[in-house]
Amino acid sequence: MLKLLQNEWMKIIKRPGTFVMMGLLLVTVVLMGGIIKYQSQDEKPNPNWKLEIQTTIAEQKQNLVQMENVPKGQREYLEKSIAINEYRLEHNLAPNGEYAIWSFVQDASSLIQLAGLFTIIVAAGIVASEFNWGTIKLLLIRPTSRSKILLAKYTTVISFALLMLTLLFGFSTLVGWIAFGMPEQSTPYLNYFAGKVTEESMVFHLIKFHGLSSISMIMLSTMAFMISAVFRNSSLAIGLSIFLMFTGAQFTNLIAIKFDWAKYILFANTDLMQYFEGMPLVEGMTLPFSVSMLVVYFVLFHSLAFFVFRKRDVAA
User: Can you list the positions of beta strands (E) in the chain?
Assistant: First the structure.
């Protein structure tokens, strides 16, 4: 199994596209840091932030009273915003504090989607490319089962996803430290859950956010891997997976406004942060339910991939 993994990683490393993807990720982090550094030079602390927050709270409470026939999600969003703003006033926590290393890492976490895009490209081609190049025959003549070959390829995809995620977190931390330095006073992250606001360590929040955000990346990469193994078409796997990555959550949100069965859709369950931020997509959804749905989809994707790959005739 170890030799299979080494073989798959050698294939990935020898492709120039792999280093291009890594380079694009790192360059994007640097560009983001430079833009934020340039824009932050003109920003000054707002001494009247308490007055502005008080005005915002009054407006939001008025809007909340007037909202009778609006989706529950909009009401919950306003309730969360009001609770956090009131907590800031009570504990004297300015909304725009010192911009430092962890603030930049939080902003750079938006690039997780870019890392996911690159992982999907690798997952979509790791099986289909073997058929396109004709090298699949060289793999199957070995005294190794097809299941082990496919498992080694999927393990490589997951390890590549973790590499990209670690690279993003580590490099954004380095750029944030160089460009913005360490904060003079640590600023907590305000978490809203079950109607209460609590303080979290910013570092802990960022690690948790990156970890939970990787679930969506892994599930979409698994789907791309399945399409690659079943249809032997990397273009189809990349195109469909990227389309769903950018539109799946939006379509699911629209369906959830009208129908409760939206909770069974994959994209209603990939964002586990909804259970830590206090706003599940559909009423009645719980963390164990979403984990169970993710397991069901995960098993379904792999069942299709392994069944077709083991039964396919590649002698022609």
Answer: 189-193, 196-200
The answer to whether 9 and 153 have CB atoms below 8 angstroms apart is no
pLDDT at 316: 43
> What's the rounded Cα separation, in Å, for the pair 311 and 233?
17
Q: Are residues 78 and 139 in the same domain?
A: no
3-state secondary structure of 193: strand
316, part of any domain: no
Domain that holds residue 70: 46-96
Report how far apart the first and last C-alpha atoms of the chain are (Å, whole number): 27
**Using one digit for the tens of pLDDT, what is the confidence trace for 156-175?**
999 999 999 999 999 999 99
* pLDDT tens string 125-134: 888 877 766 6
Alpha helix (H) residue ranges in 71-201: 72-91, 101-108, 112-133, 136-140, 146-180
**What backbone phi and psi angles, to 5 degrees, belong to 48?**
-105, 30
Please answer whether residues 98 and 183 qualify as being in contact, where contact means their C-beta atoms are separated by less than 8 angstroms: yes
In a domain, 183, yes or no: yes
Q: Are residues 11 and 68 located together in one domain of the fold?
A: no
236 with 277, same domain: the answer is yes
* pLDDT band, residue 250 (cuts 50/70/90): confident
Please indicate, yes or no, if residue 293 is contained in any of the structural domains. yes
Q: Are residues 106 and 186 in the same domain?
A: yes
pLDDT tens digits, 49-99: 788 888 888 888 887 777 666 666 667 778 888 888 888 888 888 776 677
Q: Tell me if 301 sits within 8 A of 223, measured CB to CB.
A: yes
The structural domain count of the chain equals 2
Q: Are 126 and 156 in contact (CB under 8 A)?
A: yes
Residue 8 belongs to a domain: yes
Residues 6+ apart with CB under 8 A from 73: 257, 279, 281
CA pair distance 294, 278, nearest whole angstrom: 20
- Return the structure tokens found at 268: 């209603």
Q: What local confidence, expressed as pLDDT, does residue 137 receive?
A: 67
